[in-house]
Amino acid sequence: MKCSLGTCCLFVAGFLLAGCGASHVSNPSASNTKPALTVSTNQQTMSEKITRTEDEWKKLLTPEQYRVLREKGTERAGTGEYTNTKDKGVYRCAGCGEELFVSDTKYDSHCGWPSFYQPASSNKITEAEDNSFGKRVEVMCSKCGGHLGHVFEDGPQPTGLRYCINSASLKFEAKKDEQK
Ligand SMILES: [Zn+2]
Questions:
Q1: What pLDDT score was predicted for residue 11?
Q2: Least C-beta-crowded within 10 Å: which of 31, 61, 64, 125?
Q3: Up-side HSE of residue 173: CA atoms within 13 Å toward CB?
Q4: Cα–Cα dist 15/17, whole Å
Q5: What CA–CA distance (Å, rounded) separates 142 from 48?
Q6: 51-174: CATH homologous superfamily?
Q7: Cα(33) to centroid of ligand 1, in Å?
Q8: How many distinct helices (H) and strands (E) make up the chain?
Q9: Among the options 93, 96, 144, 164, which is catalytic?
């Protein structure tokens, strides 16, 4: 298959369009002195994305996080911080803090990496074909584009999926309060 360039172009085009659409939303009627609050609330904004230069990422991330998130690296099986974590809480993207997985969907896959049967929400995760080691489906953070790991079709029900995620691309946040 040599369609990767085409796919890439489509992706870039979509990205630019999304960015364009977002910039039109701002209201130019700022005639008074109040500075417009451009930062939206924590609500899920559809096309909110984070883009940084590689230098900025290098400053923000540890070398291991950078290698995994930005260079699509893979931590060695069984070495990750969260492989056997069973605490209740949420797993956020180590790059941008977006909530990606919740502990309720984490299970013991014995594959050496934290495994989840579904993401916190499907729009938090972007999938892409990865042909580097056979056919695999790469999963990335939709917000910052950081590489997370891969998804396989040998997971448990109800989804039958196994999101095999590098600990280095996650930041666990233990649940503070009881269920709301
Ligand atoms: Zn992210």
A1: 44
A2: 31
A3: 13
A4: 5
A5: 9
A6: Peptide methionine sulfoxide reductase. (2.170.150.20)
A7: 35
A8: 3, 9
A9: 164
Two structure tokens written together for 70: 């930005």
Q: What is the DSSP string of 126-180?
A: EEEEE-BTBSEEEEEETTT--EEEEEES---TTTT-EEEE-GGGEEEEE--SPP-
Q: What is the pLDDT of residues 155-164, one digit of tens each?
A: 999 999 999 9
Task: Read off φ and ψ for residue 141, nearest 5 degrees.
Answer: -70, 125
Residue extents of the structural domains in the chain: 51-174
The CA 49 to ligand 1 mean position distance, Å, reads 9
pLDDT of residue 35: 46
Neighbours of ion ligand 1 (CB under 5 A): 93, 95-96, 98, 141, 143-144, 146
Q: 100 C-alpha to center of ligand 1: Å?
A: 8
Distance in Å, CA 170 to ligand 1 centroid: 9
State yes or no: is 111 an active-site residue.
no
